[in-house]
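Before a computer can learn anything about folding, someone has to put a protein's shape into writing. The three-dimensional part falls to structure tokens, numbers that each stand for a local backbone shape. The protein below has been through that process, and both of its lines are reproduced in full.
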Amino acid sequence: MRDKHSLAFLESQFLPYFEIIKREDIKSKVIRAQEKQVEHKKDILRNRLPRFISSLLEDRIDYKGSEIYDELKNDDVTYVAYSLRKLL
């Protein structure tokens, strides 16, 4: 997960060493998965972890309504999947 500026920087770091075979923005898939898993992840946070840990993780776990989810929905950040080939 990156903002658009750091994504461009990351790709520039790949180029001397890798050829980008495929670049796919998977943000919409990540958002759908977050929406489907919201109750499961909240259950884990609330019922299976110690309270001090769950309170630390609550805003960072990627479920609908979380900080990460909101950043994706607001187009502040994106998820990208790459297929790379090492340059010889």
